[in-house]
Amino acid sequence: MLTSVPRGTKDILPDTIHQWLYLEEKIRELCAKYGFNEIRTPLFEHTELFLRGIGETTDVVEKEMYTFEDRGGRSITLRPENTASAVRAYLQNKLYADNNLTKLFYIGSMFRYDKPQAGRYREFHQFGVEAIGEQNPLMDAEVISLGADFLKELGLTDVILKINSVGCPKCRPVYREKLQAFFKDKFEHLCKDCQSRFDRNPLRILDCKNPTCKELSVGVPEITDCLCDECADHFEHLQHHLKAIGVDFVLDPRLVRGLDYYTKTAFEFKYTPLGAQSAVLGGGRYDGLIEECGGNPTPAVGFATGLERVLLALETQQLLPKNKEKCTVFIVAMGDKAKEPAFKLLHELRSKNIAALMDYAGRSMKAQMKQANKHNAQYAIILGEDEIDKQIATVRNMNDSEQMEIPFDTLIDKIIFEVNK
RNA sequence: GUGGCUAUGGUGAAGCGGUCAACACGGCGGAUUGUGGCUCCGUUAUUGCGUGGGUUCGAUCCCCACUAGUCACCCCA
User: Fold this and answer.
1) Which residue numbers delimit the Aminoacyl-transfer RNA synthetases class-II family profile domain (predicted)?
2) How far apart are alpha carbons A269 and A278 in whole angstroms?
3) What's the pLDDT band for A1 if we cut at 50, 70, 90?
4) ipTM of this predicted complex?
5) Which positions on strand B lie below 7 Å from a protein C-beta?
6) Which residue ranges form the domains of chain A, and what is each CATH number?
């Protein structure tokens, strides 16, 4: 116990941290390009926010939340996603006052008590965006294209974008009834899961993988045929906009999102080699959430992407960046007499912004040279007793093995000169 | 949460119910006197083979539980 992480969590070690920095760098560049601004919200919120925001009957809320009581008796929950928090922050800080449209993005840990699997963790990291205050389908298109751009920027191919419309509070209940009517006389033949879905969320029956359920759902009315005029129009426009900017997509009338707050647009980027965890990026419109959280009715769209999954996907296509250590100078100091002058030199080099290392363990010269090599040092500065006596250092270029003797008083300048040339 | 599979050193892994737990990589040291990357040599799990029980004269290899990972389902990022 003492030496293992809790189930479903992971250390990100120095040998892979560059992958995360790489992703974050790409994300920040991209968001700057699209005009989304970073927000950081607390890792935990009042439980009620998620209950209201995500929906009490969703799996996330029913069985995946890390909820506890703090010492003041408040019910606190580690955030299972960031949209509700972003909306809360938007309302609390009255971000709507600055602008009619607020475009936010976030990167951070989320927590869900799931059974862990590759690509599914109890603490995982998401990058997501939220555009709050715009109902035009152009906004949906922008958000989707940002998601597509993100994956494309990373070089990832063979990703499929699926889109759907899940309707609004006007037309979804109508569709729901149609569905229930359709499955009513088939109820007994549905699998157990679907029987419970029948009341709670009949839309979910549509993407059940049970063969019998699949058969039974042949000929079912599609939601896209039952949308109200407004939703149908919105969906229609979205498709045009996506085509106009060359974002490929497939219509998937059975695409359903797991969180209650979605309205109209739902979309998902799938990368099938990841198996059961192939949903790499998903999102949609949530026009009712802001009001649900106590704000004025405000339309919004967003998405979230699982960074672990993105990394897994990149790995399958060998798109992960290499870890390049850049050490400019390695000081090889030999003998006690040389250690302190070497240490002073080390300090001076660093004060001139030169990445420098040295060995403290008193290893042999050969061993120190190996260290220099392992750290990819461009130069080795050799300081032995001879050099100290003569006040001269031997500077070895590790790439071409050329060496030169440099007097101490010009050493730093010479190194700076060499490094910059 | 349900079901299947797996669990050997820093890593990838071989192995048998019973004399030293292969091999490769990595790490460390060395190959005549102060010099790396290639090559070669040595060394690197010292009552040990996820943890705890059990079967057995004896278990890393058999059984059970737990834990963890993994796959599918559920769901989702």
Assistant:
1) 1-341
2) 8
3) low
4) 0.88
5) 1-3, 27-31, 34-37, 67-77
6) 17-171+227-316 (3.30.930.10), 329-416 (3.40.50.800)
